[in-house]
TrEMBL record:
Native organism: Krasilnikoviella flava
Record bears the keyword Oxidoreductase: yes
Gene3D superfamilies, sorted: NAD(P)-binding Rossmann-like Domain
Highest taxon of source: Bacteria
Similarity field: Belongs to the short-chain dehydrogenases/reductases (SDR) family.
Keywords: Oxidoreductase
Protein name as annotated: NADP-dependent 3-hydroxy acid dehydrogenase YdfG
Reaction(s) the record says it catalyses: 3-hydroxypropanoate + NADP(+) = 3-oxopropanoate + NADPH + H(+); L-allo-threonine + NADP(+) = aminoacetone + CO2 + NADPH
Native organism taxonomy: Bacteria, Bacillati, Actinomycetota, Actinomycetes, Micrococcales
Length: 257
């Protein structure tokens, strides 16, 4: 039990995190841009799971809105006149595919990818780690991707940052009672590819993971204090190959998709 804050809670993996956490009796703070969708989710979760749900709409690419989420994470539960409970699990999940050529694409999209998938992860991890270490318990789960090991433009570079950053955070947090885990899935059936307008019809079903399994495995790994969580045997094998292969071979494959 305790309170979990999930970014990117309106769809895909984030939505699944919210449901699995709520049914395990966690209160949840749900963050995303679409306020209507968040309110609808909150009503459903309250009715079905009977837990507290706080709705915190925020565009994580906007510094002032990101700050509001960081301020929520900083709550320790000891502030006078504030009955909000401290967050014991942060899931930094929000993200999107850039799905464009870096050279010919829009610079604003590349910068927004960095803001949402790098800057927000850093800022929110900082706020959460400070509060959690002061209480001597908590967990941070950052969602990267198997793409972190590929040569796939700004998206892959952002995920490589998340993977490396989380490993470093896990080292720094040793002995504090707080853990850091990075989740590195392969393709998962969510809204991710449709939102980006990416045609994935050439990827066979064997290449796909489903959100309930990915999330259940990730939460189990968080409970065990695992640092790098790669769901499924096939993506564990693919990741091992990507780590062992010479980089020229990885580059030769080109973009991850
Ligand atoms: N699906 C896949 O194949 C894989 C996904 N991942 C990673 O998993 C994570 C979740 O993606 P997935 O569930 O698949 O994608 P979805 O498109 O299904 O969900 C993305 C979520 O992120 C939120 N979001 C996007 N941009 C912002 C923003 N600027 N501010 C706040 N919230 C935002 C969206 O909500 P809203 O629009 O309401 O803001 C939505 O809730 C991402 O980090 C992604 O990179 C990793 C590997 C594979
Ligand atoms: N694995 C996905 C996201 O990271 C993708 O690249 O489509």
């Amino acid at each position: 039990m305790g309170t979990a804050l999930v970014t990117g809670a309106t769809a895909g993996l984030g939505l699944e995190f919210v449901w699995q956490l709520a049914t395990a009796r966690h209160d949840v703070v749900v963050v995303a841009r679409d306020a209507d969708r968040l309110e609808q989710l909150a009503a459903q979760v309250r009715a079905a799971a009977g837990v507290r749900v706080e709705v915190l709409p925020a565009d994580l690419s906007v510094p002032a809105e990101l700050e509001r989420v960081a301020a929520r994470l900083a709550v320790t539960g000891e502030e006078a006149g504030d009955d909000r409970r401290p967050v014991g699990l942060l899931v930094n999940n929000a993200g999107f595919a850039t799905a464009q050529s870096f050279v010919r694409g829009e610079l604003a999209v590349e910068l927004s990818a960095l803001d949402v998938m790098v800057r927000a992860v850093l800022v929110l991890s900082h706020a959460a780690a400070g509060q959690m270490t002061s209480r001597g318990r908590g967990a941070i789960l950052n969602v990267a991707s198997v793409a972190a090991l590929t040569a796939g433009g700004t998206y892959a570079a952002a995920k490589a940052y998340v993977r490396s950053f989380t490993e470093g955070l896990a080292v720094e947090l040793r002995g504090t009672g707080v853990t850091a885990t990075v989740l590195c899935p392969g393709f998962v059936h969510t809204e991710f590819h449709d939102r980006a307008g990416v045609d994935m019809t050439s990827v066979p079903e064997i290449g796909w993971l489903d959100a309930p399994t990915v999330v259940a495995e990730a939460l189990a790994e968080v409970r065990r204090g695992v640092v790098i969580s790669t769901p499924s045997v096939r993506y564990k094998a693919a990741s091992a190959l990507l780590r062992l292969a010479p980089r020229f071979a990885v580059r030769a494959v080109g973009k991850y998709r």
